[in-house]
Design goal:
The complex is a heterodimer of chains A (about 300) and B (about 350). By secondary structure, chain A is mainly α. Chain A contains twelve helices and two strands, in the order αββααααααααααα. Chain A has helices at about 10-35, 55-60, 65-95, 100-110, 115-125, 135-140, 150-180, 185-195, 195-225, 230-235, 245-255, 260-285, and strands at about 40, 50. In chain A, strands 1-2 form a two-stranded antiparallel ribbon. In chain A, strand 1 (about 40) and strand 2 (about 50) form a beta hairpin. The radius of gyration of chain A is 24 Å and the shape is globular. Chain B is an alpha+beta fold. Chain B has two domains: about 5-235, Rossmann fold, CATH 3.40.50.300; about 240-340, no CATH class. Helices cover about 25% and strands about 35% of the residues of chain B. In chain B, the strands form four sheets. A six-stranded mixed beta sheet of chain B has the order 6-7-8-3-9-10, sandwiched between helices. A five-stranded antiparallel beta sheet of chain B has the order 13-12-11-14-20. In chain B, strands 15-19-16-17-18 form a five-stranded antiparallel beta sheet, with no helix packed on it. In chain B, helix 2 (about 95-100) crosses helix 3 (about 110-120) and helix 2 (about 95-100) runs parallel beside helix 4 (about 135-150). Chain B is elongated. In chain B, about 40% of the residues are buried. The chains are: A mainly alpha (about 300), B alpha+beta (about 350). Chains A and B meet through helix 8 and helix 9 of A and strand 6 of B. Chain B: It comes from Thalassovita aquimarina. Chain B: One of its GO terms (molecular function) is ATP binding. Chain B: Keywords: ATP-binding, Cell inner membrane, Cell membrane, Membrane, Nucleotide-binding, Sugar transport, Translocase, Transport.
Chain lengths: ~300, ~350
């Protein structure tokens, strides 16, 4: 590796300042503010705050509602991650065998990725509209009285569906390019060595896709945990009631709807710790990457 | 071990291009046949149809006494060695070699024995636990060979297996593959664009051009008796000299009127005259004038490049004869002459 050197000590610092200031202003500062305010109880009208120590945290851990939301978030994340990856992999494997029209097909699938999460959520709201939503009607045909925003399970179902729909395209693209990056002859050799298509998939294709799959697993978990905010927000319309929501959304609801800034900050801090643990796990996996990565 | 029969096998791609015109040939049990031709001549397509990686549009393919047109590649009892080795990158050498056996429900101890045997035969013993990425090109090629050998197939298929190796290694592997095939006695079909590989390895050569079989024959038949100007110019390095000539008054004459040989009966008009560079002798009293421009020193012999009757010409000269550029007389051995008509077919 070649080392580039700077004659002047100040130049590299100067060049780093824009990036560092963005990180400082938009991440470290708010993060510190959150940690600080998580130890205070705010007056609902904004007239002042009282130091309460770890009371906000204690409240959270004692709250049955918080545990319920946490559980829902775990299940939601697992479902969204698993389904988005599985469906995308299936589509990619099938699309990979098609040569003609593959480009058009790819582009068409990719479009969905360009849809912003709130728009995706809004499309979900339309599809599940109580009186004329096509998916509500479809559910009605099989005797399922689907009521979005009222029945917990129905809303959760719509949330998972829309989130998965939104995430499948990007996974698909990654899987497909992963599939197309390994030489055709490897698959042909497998064709001669193994007559079973499913055997070939699990022995050859799947292990070869492992690096791509691992990367997608991490990005999908992050997506399901955090980036689904827009989808959740549009589907529950900021009216939690009996509706399912994720931890990230609860931070918003408690802080900005409930005006409980202290409790909301405590929740953000917990999430922050969670992300830190997740990031460390990823880092650790990267260290033992030999297991899944090869050239 | 098996015979292979192709009966008017044809390939038309969905876009309408005819990659292989109806082709028939019969490969004997234990024979080493080389398919050779320039790129795009259909040789790989033909091999891939035999392997089952490409669908056969028309005709009948038999391996042994089975028609295998619609048989899965895994059920054709074949093994294939690919140009880029096609090893499974996530498996060790051992697993790569054993994979085909494992899927055929071979007992574990037999797999062990066969892998050890193949590894010993190919000098891979020390590398069995390595991944393909930790091997050199030649070693990878050996692993690919090992994967083919352990299966004891009826037929070996080679798709330009040496093209990715450097020249020295290629010569060595060429000999190894040939020796291995002799020892195992497995019927083999080998595709290459390299005429040296074809000449040195084959029991029989099939020369392909534009999806059509130009000639089938032993290396010496192909070399000495090409049936077309294409074969004459494709096989041999340097290729056969081809000169425009005409038949008149019962003799073959070059432009400028030099009489070369007696003409075959009843033919007149323009022809192409072919002569191998080594069948031309420098002879001051020779009927032809050879203007030598360039002398290529190859150690064991020299190649003289220049013009005869205004057309490019090459001859072959042993190392103990010296010659200077300029005009020299040459003599052609009439019995070694090949004549082709204007369409390029042998007269």
């Amino acid at each position: 590796m070649k080392r580039a050197g700077f004659a002047n000590t100040w130049l590299p610092i100067l060049l780093l300042i824009p990036q560092l200031s963005i990180v400082a202003i938009f991440f470290y500062w708010p993060a510190l503010e959150a940690v600080q305010s998580s130890f205070f109880l705010q007056d609902p009208f904004g007239f002042g705050s009282t130091f309460v120590g770890f009371e906000n945290y204690a409240d959270l851990f004692g709250s049955a509602e918080y545990r319920k939301v946490a559980w829902f978030t775990v299940i939601f994340t697992l479902l969204v991650t698993f389904l988005s990856l599985a469906i995308a992999l299936l589509l990619a494997v099938k699309a990979d065998t098609i040569l003609r029209g593959a480009k058009t097909y790819r582009t068409l699938l990719m479009w969905v990725y360009a849809v912003a999460p709130p728009v995706a959520g809004f499309i979900g709201v339309i599809m599940f509209n109580q009186t004329w939503g096509p998916l509500t009607n479809l559910a009605g045909l099989v005797g399922w009285d689907f009521v979005l925003g009222v029945k917990f399970n129905d809303t959760a179902f719509a949330m998972v569906l829309v989130s998965v729909w939104k995430q499948v395209p990007v996974n698909f693209i990654f899987f497909l390019s992963g599939l197309q990056s390994f030489p055709k002859s490897v698959r042909e050799a497998a064709l001669i060595d193994n007559r079973s298509a499913s055997g070939r998939f699990w022995d050859i294709t799947f292990p070869l896709l492992a690096p791509t799959g691992f990367f997608l697993l991490i990005t999908n978990i992050t997506y399901a945990l955090f980036d689904t905010f827009g989808v959740v927000d549009t589907l529950v319309k900021g009216e939690p009631g009996n509706n399912p929501m994720t931890l990230v959304y609860k931070v918003y609801v408690d802080g900005f709807r409930g005006n409980d800034l202290g409790g909301s900050s405590a929740q953000s801090v917990i999430l922050m710790v969670l992300v830190l643990v997740l990031a460390l796990t990823v880092f650790q996996f990267r260290l033992v990457e030999r297991r899944i990565h090869y050239t | 071990m098996a015979e292979v029969k192709l009966n008017s096998v044809r390939k038309i791609y969905p876009n309408g291009a005819e990659a292989v015109t109806p082709s028939s040939f019969h490969i004997q049990d234990g024979e080493f046949v080389v398919l050779v031709g320039p790129s795009g001549c259909g040789k790989s397509t033909l091999l891939r149809m035999i392997a089952g990686l490409e669908e056969i549009t028309e005709g009948e393919l038999m391996i042994g006494d089975r028609v295998v047109n619609h048989t899965d590649p895994a059920d054709r009892d074949i093994a294939m060695v690919f140009q880029n080795y096609a090893l499974y990158p996530h498996m060790t050498v051992k697993k790569n070699i054993a994979y085909g056996l494992k899927n055929r429900k071979t007992p574990g101890d037999e797999i062990e024995r066969k892998v050890a045997e193949a590894a010993q035969m190919l000098n891979l013993g020390d590398y069995l636990d390595r991944k393909p990425s930790q091997l050199s090109g030649g070693q990878r090629q050996r692993v690919a060979m090992g994967r083919a050998i352990v299966r004891d197939p009826a037929l070996f298929l080679f798709d330009e297996p040496l093209s990715n190796l450097d020249a020295k290694l290629r010569n060595q592997m060429r000999i190894e593959i040939k020796a291995l095939q002799r020892r195992l006695g497995v019927t083999s079909i080998y595709v290459t664009h390299d005429q040296v590989e074809a000449m040195t390895m084959a029991d029989r050569i099939i020369v392909l051009n534009g999806g059509r079989i130009e000639q089938i024959g032993s290396p010496s038949e192909i070399y000495h008796n090409p049936t077309s100007t294409f074969v004459a110019s494709f096989m041999g390095a340097p290729p056969m000299n081809l000169l425009d000539a005409r038949i008149a008054d019962g003799t073959v004459q070059l432009d400028g009127g030099a009489h070369v040989a007696a003409a075959p009966n009843g033919k007149t008009g323009p022809v192409t005259l072919g002569i191998r560079p080594e069948d031309v002798k420098l002879d001051a009293a020779g009927a032809l004038h050879f203007d030598i421009d360039l002398i290529e020193e190859l150690g064991a012999h020299r190649l003289l490049h220049g013009k005869v009757a205004g057309q490019p010409f090459t001859t072959h000269l042993l190392k103990d004869v010296t010659v200077e550029p300029g005009r020299h007389g040459v003599r052609i051995d009439p019995s070694k002459l090949c004549l082709f008509d204007t369409t390029g077919s042998r007269l």
